[in-house]
Design a protein that fits this description.
Strand order of the largest sheet: 1-4-5-6
Order of helices and strands: HEEEEEEEHHHHH
Largest sheet: 4 strands, antiparallel
Strand content: 15-25%
Length: about 220
């Protein structure tokens, strides 16, 4: 039913200003009604569902998603990236200006997916980055660990950067003598599990640095 100004007020019941305001309001409502007749509803927008993850780029320039590995530029090696995994693609973002998009491998397992721009030019091998800063710090603090570090990089089950960071923490937190003794023992048995190495260091620290004098039981 059309909106009429007469339905909004009775003549003589309102002042001139009030009647003018009511008329303007009715005209605005009429205009909005006419506009709605020509509008079409927008399609429903459903945001893409994704799984957000954090990853560390390994020494070969890949990140792991489930059982597959996806390439990134070699300059990202050792850097932490944000990974968004959708049904059809894997987006790897270093920062607001650096983004890599891969087609997601859904069914294959233990596959390497490399983009052409991440492949070194033919005839040129991929240039290895400088040693990790953690490795430099370890060798600078304890040069005796250089051989163990080299073997750790080859035989550790962890990502190299994470393993080096853990070993650097041990070097910084524990006295050098029990640390070096535990490392020598671990290397002799081919042990490169740093969690077990830390337990070995703690046993040596407890034995060598916390010798308690057992006095009479009554002494407190």
């Amino acid at each position: 039913m059309p909106i009429s100004a007469a339905t909004c007020f009775r003549p003589g019941s309102l002042s001139h200003q009030q009647r003018s305001a009511r008329v303007r309001d009715v005209e605005r409502r009429r205009a909005r009604h006419r506009q709605r007749l020509h509008l079409k509803p927008l399609p429903a927008w459903i945001p893409e569902v994704y799984r957000l993850q954090q990853r560390l780029v390994d020494i070969e320039g890949y990140i792991a998603v489930r059982t597959n590995r996806y390439s990134v530029p070699l300059e990202w090696i050792g850097r932490r990236v944000e990974v968004r995994e959708t049904r059809d693609k894997v987006e790897i973002q270093l920062d607001s200006r650096h983004l890599v998009t891969h087609r997601r491998v859904a069914d294959a397992e233990h596959q390497r997916v490399m983009l052409a721009e991440h492949r070194p030019p033919r005839g040129q091998r991929g240039t290895r980055p400088d040693p990790h800063p953690e490795e430099k710090a370890i060798v600078a603090a304890a040069p005796e660990l250089s051989d163990y570090v080299a073997e750790l990089k080859q035989r550790s089950r962890k990502v190299v950067t994470l393993a080096l960071r853990q070993l650097l923490r041990l070097v910084r937190e524990y006295p050098q003598e029990p640390l070096l003794g535990a490392v020598r023992e671990a290397a002799r048995y081919g042990l490169y599990d740093l969690d077990r190495l830390e337990r070995m260091i703690l046993r040596r620290v407890a034995r060598e640095y916390f010798l308690l004098d057992e006095g009479p039981h009554g002494d407190d």
